[in-house]
Amino acid sequence: MSTADTTSSADALNSADIKNTADIKTVVRQKYGEAALRIKSGGSSCCGATASNGCADPITSKLYDGAQAQQVPEEAMLASLGCGNPTALANLNAGEVVLDLGSGGGIDVLLSAKRVGSTGKAYGLDMTDEMLALANENKRKAAVENVEFLKGEIETIPLPDNSVDVIISNCVINLSADKDRVLREAFRVLKPGGRFAVSDVVTRGEIMPEIRESVHLWVGCIAGALDENEYRSKLATAGFEQVQIEPTRIYQVEDAREFLAAHNIDVDALAPQVDGKFMSAFVRAVKPAANTNKSCCSPTCCN
Length: 303
Description:
Radius of gyration: 19 Å
Number of helices: 13
Shape: globular
Oligomer: single chain
Distance between the termini: 57 Å
Low-confidence stretches: 1-19, 44-62, 72-77, 292-303
Largest sheet: 8 strands, mixed
Strand content: 15-25%
């Protein structure tokens, strides 16, 4: 799809509700492409790829400390559209292979690459050409060799089975319309014993359908968020064990007033459906280790 086609398709959806998966992908690709171009022209960006200078978005602000900021190019920091800091969440070791789902401008990939060292590798996966271009430019500026950015969708990861030690992601899985497939793919590419350690927006309690179906709220990291219990269930269904969800920020309607008002959403009417129901969280899980018991081969050995 050309840039012009993407833009016109997304514009047609701006005042409409989400109808299907293709709608969501079109809008997300267009909005995050715009964010990447804005960074390259000297701007910054918030969750939902909204225009901003000196982003004060409560979801995306103050996620990385000063020491981490000094390790990456400024454009990588400005392009952070996440809701947490998965590099602080994940326990990375030298020599490991890390995959960042929806890597954007590459901040989490570059930080991970430094932690796994020259014997390890960090992959970033993104579907947006503009973000991939920005990420590769940030890789060049950071002079990091053990990094590779891949073009693709998180529902179809272009890596072999059992090839990754750790999967990270930062406020991206909530943007997918097929989260079950994302989690199955994550499970597939992880090695036995591999770790899933992502930051994501999750919900607590019932959310009105009007919120779930809004294009603006989906791209704004809200409408597509899973309920915390549903997230646990989907991870378990995909095969993961040791599932943990740790809230890091709980949002009130005032946190999103400017964003909602900009899209002609009645903030005060929405307040009871938003206050305390949305939160950023660390989501952890483990792929079971391979069975190394080779002696159990008779019909009665497990009795």
